[in-house]
Design brief:
The complex is a heterodimer. Helix content of chain A is 30%, strand content 16%. Chain A is α/β, with parallel strands linked by helices. Chain B has a seven-stranded mixed beta sheet, with no helix packed on it. A five-stranded antiparallel beta sheet of chain B has the order 1-2-4-10-7. By secondary structure, chain B is α+β, with helices and mostly antiparallel strands. The chains are: A alpha/beta, B alpha+beta.
């Protein structure tokens, strides 16, 4: 009998292997991580500043053809305008580390915003990729929608056409807009997690 | 690309081929005024699209394996990408970012009925840009396509025009999309097609194209765990697999595995194992895992059915047999309990007295009694599984790292030992009565219910065993729960079934008597030993105060048990039992609250004692990422032991392998630095280190050779001294 106990103890020891693992990618249903990062005006900003509001995060790299697809066509700007109309906060996040492709200074970014007529609520200059690391952002663009409670309700691609061809935008279903519309009308988000497409975030 | 730059690049075969034809056409043109038009015309025909194109960082070119194609046959054509150094193109599953090339074929004149297959994808490379991982190609790659030529194809010109619209993405740090329309002619003639100058490119591409048939002697399986997939490669002939380089798995589907996670490779006598970390974004376990298995003996396109083992690693065959054996033994011992043995004796007597029954009837009766026992035990197994299932949903951790679970298990087993000692009794009251009546029925129904009775009505004696078994198997895979209870049942039924087959054995049965009560009481002590073991683990995970809470909880439980036994059958007694037990449970819970404080303050202090005090000769250093990096930078061989006080396997390994003199000596002579990570309290730095190797638990043993850019060897979870020495020899080479 003692042997049984000992044996069972051993099994239990082996079974201890199945313990929760360390996880770094944010999933739908998770609380959005709270990281402070400088914005384009040099002010420390974190998601807690926007608690009580819907927030859209857009991972951005102005040199990436997939980002260009949505900016040069005006698609991203019109999405930002719609978000504004709906009272949704739009944060553009630039996570290219200093020295890496896509890194821009606040001045360069301001010039870009003016030229593109882009209207995000704010731009986060995530020069140490800390914000991207917390979220596990993979691509530019990589989109997240966070509800007023601070819970992630959408993560993934901007739309369902994985390409850098602006001609595809017309026939695409925009997942971010769909998630916002559904959630704002009290419905659960039907497509809440997709595979993001684009260039890699330059960690 | 300038001509100078073109020649300054390391020429590969495509360039040689091109150069050859350029030189040839130039030479011919010069000597015979043969316009190069004629020559290039022979290669590019009337198409307006060029056969090749230079684009930023990549050159693309159409190729064909044979100079012509025969009607009714097929021909291999393809597009060849030549990439500038540092730039890469993507595989069909690009990984964390990127996009695979897309191609659309057309043939002129239109309507010939030529069919282009999907292109083949040569096995890609892992392109790391931490923390991301892409799958793709660097330098050069040919993506071949097979064209089916209709039987009745006849053309006046004798050739068709092939056109390819191609889109791709190349990335280095930045990404650049590219597009080209390429064209080339293809002769259609009945005679046997001759291999062309580019045939070698196709031969080489084929070497990298995964085979659809696996090696016949291999068997692949995938086990799904909560945080990873375990891909096993087993040789069906039972031969050991020896890989000198770890196989790599490329998933065909996105977001099934964490692309960037290290694919942990280990091999043992049962075969080889690749652990793939499950993607965070994966909601449901897929039915099958598809992808390419890249091994040193071949590349295989595989799709493997997933076996779901929702929460636990697969037990080896030996562990099964052990679990079954000890459960069987336990079941047989149960027969000697004072409340079970008389049942057995009565039945045995009834066999002797049943002169009216035929042997066959007796045997049938015996087997049905066994079935009754098994059914009742399966009821307990089901109860355990339901409890476990609902616990899982509620997020309870039935694991030894959860102090609350340990405290509850401790209380349960303590109460069970008090019960065996006779402090109190568990009775099911009227249910037993009903069972008794059922058991008195004659015939098969009677036999069946006697079996049920042996389990249920004998609760006062069996409860400590059922309760302990339920508690101890609560954290186990479903299959273990069922095995343990089934074999407990087989063991319990065994003597009687044996008697019904050989009634003469009754003579050697001992007579019931006081010895049974003594045995029952004695068996409380192994349970009390288990309580000590659990208390020890609990103490390691909480502070001393935490353990004090559990002591008090046990005292209250004793009080509750005592008063229930002293004044049995009173509702007041039962009520106070429940209340006292509730308070004990609360105390165990309160004790666990002290745990967080511990991990913050005692990371390398008192709590580490359990794991490191057994270390040999003080050669062990405390593990930290920075210390490991420092040692690796200094090119020292390093052995890392991730362990925990509650991990019995770790303790066994330490004792049987790591502390053996020959191993200790070899570590010393080789100058291997030894780092020990104590995960008793779930130190987050170690959790992170474990997850880098796709693990979510201990033990994990790593051996770094100390050579540059070396991937550590992952040792098996069950260590032997000779195994460790073998690994050390391997890095010494």
């Amino acid at each position: 009998m003692e042997k049984i106990m000992k044996k069972l103890g051993l099994y239990l020891g082996i079974i201890c292997l199945a313990l929760p693992t360390f996880s770094y990618a944010v999933k739908v249903g998770d609380a959005a991580p709270q990281v402070s990062v400088q914005d384009v005006n040099g002010k420390m900003t974190s998601l807690s500043d926007y608690k009580g509001k819907y927030v859209v995060l857009e991972w951005h790299n102005q040199g990436c053809p997939y980002v260009k697809k949505h900016y040069n066509s005006g698609n991203m700007q019109s999405l930002q305008a719609k978000a504004k109309e709906l009272g949704v906060v739009w944060l553009t996040v630039i996570s290219s580390k200093e020295g890496k492709q896509g890194f821009v200074t606040p001045e360069q970014e301001k010039a870009y915003l003016a030229e593109q007529k882009a209207m995000p609520t704010d731009v986060l200059m995530d020069t140490k990729s800390a914000f991207a690391t917390e979220f596990g952002a993979k691509t530019t663009p990589h989109m997240y929608v966070i509800d007023p409670k601070g819970v992630v309700i959408y993560t993934g691609a901007i739309d369902d056409h994985e390409s850098s061809d602006p001609a595809d935008i017309v026939k695409s279903k925009n997942y971010v807009l769909a998630a916002l519309t559904e959630s704002l009308s009290g419905k659960p988000v039907s497509v809440s997690s997709t595979r993001p497409y684009g260039c890699g975030v330059k960690y | 690309m300038s001509l100078a730059k073109y020649f300054s690049r390391k020429p590969n075969r495509a360039q040689w081929v091109n150069t050859f034809f350029y030189t040839l056409s130039w030479g011919l043109g010069m000597t015979a005024f043969w316009p190069s038009l004629v020559f290039s015309g022979a290669f590019s025909g009337q198409t307006s699209a060029p056969i090749s194109a230079h684009r930023p960082h990549v050159d693309v070119q159409l190729m064909k394996e044979t100079l012509s194609a025969a009607p009714g046959g097929s021909v291999e054509v393809g597009v060849y990408f030549q990439l500038e150094k540092g730039w890469h193109l993507y595989w069909k599953n690009p990984g964390d970012s990127g996009e695979p090339p897309k191609m659309a074929w057309s043939f002129y004149p239109a309507g010939l009925g030529i069919q282009a297959s999907q292109n083949e994808w040569p096995t890609p490379l892992r392109i790391e840009t931490p923390p991301l991982m892409q799958y793709g190609y660097s330098q050069e790659v040919l993506l071949p396509v097979s064209l089916e030529i209709p039987k009745d194809l006849a053309l006046a010109s004798g050739e068709v025009q092939i056109e390819l619209k191609l889109h791709w993405l190349v990335c280095q740090e930045s990404c650049i999309p590219g597009a080209a329309t390429l064209g080339m002619p293809l002769r259609i003639q009945a005679e046997k097609p001759k291999r062309g100058p580019q045939a070698e490119f196709f031969d080489e591409a084929r070497l990298r194209i995964p085979k659809r048939e696996l090696r016949p002697e291999w068997r692949l399986s995938v086990f799904a765990h909560p945080h990873d997939f375990e891909l096993r490669i087993v040789d069906q002939r039972g031969q050991a697999l020896e890989f000198s380089r770890p196989p790599v798995f490329f998933p065909a589907d996105p977001e099934v595995i964490e692309n960037a996670a290290h694919q942990i490779f280990s091999q043992d006598a049962q075969g080889a194992k690749l652990t793939l970390v499950r993607s965070e974004q994966l909601k449901e376990t897929p039915h099958e895992i598809r992808g390419v298995l890249d091994t040193e003996v071949g590349l295989y396109d595989v799709s493997i059915l997933v076996k779901d083992e929702t929460s636990h690693p697969a037990l080896s065959w030996m562990e099964w047999v052990q679990a079954a054996f000890f459960a069987l033994l336990g079941g047989m011992i149960l027969n000697l309990m004072p409340c079970v043995f008389p049942v057995l004796s009565i039945k045995a007597l009834s066999i002797l007295n049943s002169s009216g029954q035929s042997r066959a009837q007796l045997r049938a009766g015996g087997l049905i009694y066994g079935l009754g026992i098994l059914v009742s035990l399966w009821f307990f197994a089901a109860l355990t599984l339901i409890l476990r299932g609902s616990g899982g949903q509620l997020g309870w951790g039935f694991q030894l790292q959860s102090p609350l679970f340990i405290a509850c298990l401790c209380l349960l087993i303590y109460l069970m030992s008090l019960n065996l000692l006779g402090v109190f009794e568990i009775s099911l009251g009227s249910l037993s009565g009903a069972g008794g009546q059922l058991a008195q029925k004659s015939g098969h129904a009677g036999s069946f219910f006697t079996g049920v009775l042996a389990v249920l009505v004998a609760t006062p004696c069996t409860a400590p065993f059922m309760g302990s078994a339920m508690g101890l198997t609560l954290g186990q895979p479903a299959a273990v729960v069922i095995t343990v209870f089934t074999f407990l049942g087989v063991g319990l039924a065994f003597p009687y079934v044996l008697l019904s087959f050989y009634p003469q054995l009754e003579n050697i049965l001992p007579r019931p008597g006081r010895w049974m009560e003594s045995l029952k009481q004695f068996l409380a002590f192994p349970l009390l030993a288990t309580v000590i073991w659990l208390m020890w683990i609990y103490g390691l995970e909480t502070r001393l105060e935490g353990e004090l809470y559990l002591w008090i909880a046990l005292l209250l439980a004793s009080l509750a048990a005592w008063q229930l036994g002293r004044w049995p059958g009173r509702s007041l007694g039962l009520l106070s039992f429940v209340i006292l037990l509730g308070v004990s449970l609360w105390l165990s819970y309160a004790g666990t609250a002290l745990r967080t404080a511990t991990s913050a303050t005692g990371a390398n202090g008192a709590t580490g004692n359990g794991a490191s005090s057994s270390a040999s000769g003080g050669a062990w250093e405390k593990y930290s990422n920075s210390r490991l990096e420092e040692l690796l930078k200094a090119k020292r061989p390093v052995f890392v032991d991730f362990t925990a006080a509650w991990c019995v396997t770790c303790k066994v390994n330490e004792h049987l392998a790591l502390e053996q003199t020959e191993v200790v000596d070899r570590f010393k002579t080789m100058g291997v630095r030894m780092l020990r990570g104590d995960w008793t309290n779930g130190d987050p730095e170690i959790t992170q280190a474990l997850s880098r190797f796709g693990r979510n638990g201990v033990p994990l043993y790593l051996l770094y050779s100390g050579k540059n850019g070396d991937i550590p060897r992952v040792l098996p979870q069950i260590l032997t001294a000779s195994g460790v020495l073998k690994e050390l020899n391997a890095i010494a080479r």
